[in-house]
Amino acid sequence: MKTARSTLVTVMLISAGTASADPEQRADVPRPAKFVTAADWGSRPDSIPDERRHTPKHVTLHHAGVLWTADRDPVQFIRNMQSWGKKRPELEEPPRNTYWPDLPYHFLIAPDGRIFEGRPLEYEPESNTKYELAGHLGVELMGNFEQQRPSPAQVESAVRLVAWLLAKHDLPLDAITTHARVAKGQTSCPGRDFARYFDAEKPQFAEWVGAVLKGKPPAIELGPPLDGGPTQLITETRKPDAVR
Ligand SMILES: [Zn+2]
Hints:
Layout: H1 2-16, E1 35-36, H2 38-41, E2 58-63, H3 74-91, E3 107-109, E4 115-117, E5 136-141, H4 152-168, E6 176-178, H5 179-182, H6 192-195, H7 204-213
Parallel strand pairs: 1-4, 2-5, 2-6, 3-5
Antiparallel strand pairs: 3-4
This protein binds zinc ion (ZN).
């Protein structure tokens, strides 16, 4: 039953191309608002080989690690990332010169809360760090949360997106993880000011997701700036004046 259904879903996804066919969506967890499909933002991936297919088991949070300034355009940022991935063999030195046929992440969330659809869910992600990629759904928030703070809209979209993904793939709350946790000692991603909500002692992000899964509002409360951490919200970051 399960297998037959998965096959059907696969067939539908193939026939739908980049459109987001979603026959398994759980009634009580709607697809989040502000969702921008791959077709809508003009995604132009190359095809991903069949051996990269996987079964989602974790939802893994990332930040871009690039300081976001108010003059940036999220759509341009994503298009650039996608075309850079396809040109890595020409542009990068080993070991970073592997070819990425599509975006490394399955979703990318802009500071205004828009959720951009990236790599199709049925393929494993890409990474410059070493961990078992199969099974991970990558959700990236634009910005660098070592230097700036995520916006409330961005965090709310992340919470609602992760709840939708857990419901869709029938995954438990502890399927939520972060890049630093799965690639130990290799990265500080998703950055201090966002990573704090995934603390094992007080996993606030998972609590907010849990509320959405129960059909309740997530009651997200972002903490104050951390000691020695960033103070400025991503939406407040302006490009520094050019030094002459
Ligand atoms: Zn990351």
